[in-house]
Amino acid sequence: MMNNNNNFANSSLGGSYPGGRYPSTYAAAASSTAHTYRYSGESDDDDNDEIPTMPWDQYGWIPREKSGKQTTPNKVRNELQRYIDQCKAEGSLTQTRIIEQMGVNSNSFRKFMDPATYKNQWSATANGTYWAAAKLLARLAHEKELAKMTGKRKIAVATAGAATDSPPRKKNSTEAKLGALELIRSINAVDVSVYAVYDTCPQVVAGINSFLQRDGMTKAYLLSALGDINSNSLNTFLSGKKQDQCGNVTYRAAYVFLEKLRILEGKSKSAARRINEVENPRGVRLYVLFVSPVIAIASQQMMFLFVDEC
């Protein structure tokens, strides 16, 4: 096993990692090229709601060029910097937000982005930022390619429709599902700390129903995104009245998910949300108050005794 890693390090990269091997966490598997995007579990069956695993989410994934060689830390660093600069120019994302989405700390990020830190550029593969950035760039490249393919299909359909005077085709089901899954991955990549809930149950229900109306979105996808919540819990929460489902596990999970979606899309807080924050600075109650009839009767009797003694 060690010999295979050494051979890989010396042949496919045009260089070697110090010691002739890569960190054990990332050393497994260098068989298939990463530029070929395939979905495990992908099917033409519209009823198949299994969430596929993208190549960069699989254990042992290694970023590669079309030639099959591993992408160098220098190239990852340069592409990441261009992406950060582009986001800053567009005003879409800050560097801090991008670091949070990658799930790395600022110290590791700064160390990786400074090439002078490493005598041998391949030493940078020991920094988790290399792998997090490579995954981010792979996902962005895939989304760009997917958008390009979708655009070509739309142009082709529009041209054919104009020529034959027939209505344009509906969005492909598989295409819509892939878009929905990419959206969920982007939402879950948002790093946000939520200590209290500031939306009421009806407000969260409205947010869920709106989210489920998006192209390709299904309850199965949403349940998985919320932490594999039971479908009965979700349905019960959606059919609740006012705050009677405040103790439902779906409540907080969905609130956090929708909060990440709001941040991802750059939307401001609603007026109702701001009012809730003022009226309930510690957040709304996440449990159901229940008073036993026995306790209630006993409390009334104690009150009567107190009045008689007075």
From TrEMBL:
Keywords: Membrane, Transmembrane, Transmembrane helix. The keyword Transmembrane helix applies. The chain crosses the membrane at residues 286-307. Pfam families: DUF7726. Residues 38-72 are annotated as: Disordered. Residues 71-136, 197-267 form the DUF7726 domain. InterPro entries: DUF7726. PANTHER family: HISTONE H1. This is DUF7726 domain-containing protein. It comes from Stephanodiscus triporus.
